[in-house]
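Consider a typical record:
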Amino acid sequence: MDINTDAVDEVVLALLYLNLCGENRAWKSFDWDALNRLHDKGLIGDPVNRAKSVWLTDEGLGEAERMFTKYFVRAGD
């Protein structure tokens, strides 16, 4: 199976937005490969640490909101 990892990353980022606690932290209970790719893209802090959450960069927070709207907001809302 040829998985579109870009699409996976977009949805994980959107779900991180849904999962925000505070201004820019979200629980990191997602696929480690996806989290590492998001970190490599500069959208989140390094997920490899003892914390149970990860922080979104300013760019990541904006992109997460955009992806959340793209995938989960109904037209007209």
Q: What stands out?
A: Residues 5-72 form a domain with the Arc Repressor Mutant, subunit A fold (CATH 1.10.10.10). The radius of gyration is 12 Å. The mean pLDDT is 94. The first helix runs from residue 5 to 18.
